[in-house]
Amino acid sequence: MSRVRTVLGDIAPERLGVCDAHDHLFLRSRQLPGRELDDVDAARAELEAFRAAGGAAVVQWTPHGMGRRAADLAALSRATGVHLVCATGLHQAPHMAPEPVARLRGRLAEVFVAELTEGIGTTGVRAGLIKVAGGFHALDAHARWTMTAAAEAHHATGAPIAVHLELGTGALDVLDLLCGELGVPGERVILGHLNRSPDPVVHRQAAASGCWLAFDGPSRAHHPTDWRMPAAVRSLAEAGHGDRLLLGGDTVTAGARSVDGGPGMPYLLRRLRPRLAAELGQDLVDRMLTEHPSRAFAVDWK
């Protein structure tokens, strides 16, 4: 029976509710010095603001080695009433110190499987997805290593694989590797950041694999393609792929939180939802926020 693996345990998919399918409560990156998401009180306030806007669940894509603070997630979920899904996985090499990454050589898939099935460290929190990353229009050796380990962990557990596409590029290379060479079913792959490269031809080609298409981070001042998101989503829906769409906020710095003066998680529901509803109709947008994530993150756990 399919279940979504939250930080408080597995739940029936229909209990997930209105879901931010890609975001971050905590995150540390060498690429973002001094801008860390590392404040428990701010994370709680952000979840409360999201809940007040009608949100019920958040999928945190922060992977291994980037300050997930898994030990704090269960208490935050209990305190706010928001379901939280935590990630295992590994991001691009520049985001992390090289020494911890080197220590994972030869056992990366084993670490992913353990965090999915046994828990993250001694926290008792089990991850509910695997997060990996591609490069700009290419897959380097690090990406191939992490995706190979992710595929192995998927085959062992059934867990979905969520992929950071660098500036929205490289979707077809990712699918060729994961779904072609490594045998991961398309419906178990979630492609993130497609709004950053709104190429309708590539989007339709990717959708043909059966993968999930995530449009996330819709409020980034440095992403001038964001205004094209509604048209890109509408194009996919009109091409028959409206049942594969996900929405997320992707808050990655402290200043982007709503409680710190940024758009934050509530923006997804407060501003993006009505804008997309005007383009696509309320019914599809509601399904993108509820039914779709409940299917994308539900697993017949092995």
CATH architecture: Alpha-Beta Barrel
Helical amount: 25-40%
CATH superfamily: Metal-dependent hydrolases
**Termini separation:** 10 Å
Broad CATH class: Alpha Beta
Strand content: 15-25%
Low-confidence stretches at least 5 residues in length (pLDDT < 50)?
none
What average pLDDT do the residues reach?
A: 95
Domain module count? 1
Helical/strand content category: alpha/beta
Strand line-up of the largest beta sheet: 6-7-8-9-10-11
- The run of helices and strands is EEEHEHEEHHEHEHEHEHEHHHE
Protein name: Phosphotriesterase
Family: Belongs to the metallo-dependent hydrolases superfamily. Phosphotriesterase family.
Cofactor: a divalent metal cation
Binding site for Zn(2+) 2: 131, 164, 193
If you had to describe this structure to a student in words, what would you say it looks like?
The protein is an alpha/beta fold. It has a single domain, classed as Metal-dependent hydrolases (TIM Barrel). The chain has eleven helices and twelve strands. The strands form three sheets. Strands 6-7-8-9-10-11 form a six-stranded parallel sheet. Strand 4 (57-60), helix 2 and strand 5 form a beta-alpha-beta unit. Helix 1 packs parallel to helix 2, helix 4 (108-117) runs parallel beside helix 5 and helix 7 packs across helix 8. The longest helix is centred in the middle third of the chain and has 17 residues, at 141-157. The model has no long low-confidence stretch (mean pLDDT 95). The modification N6-carboxylysine is found at residue 131.
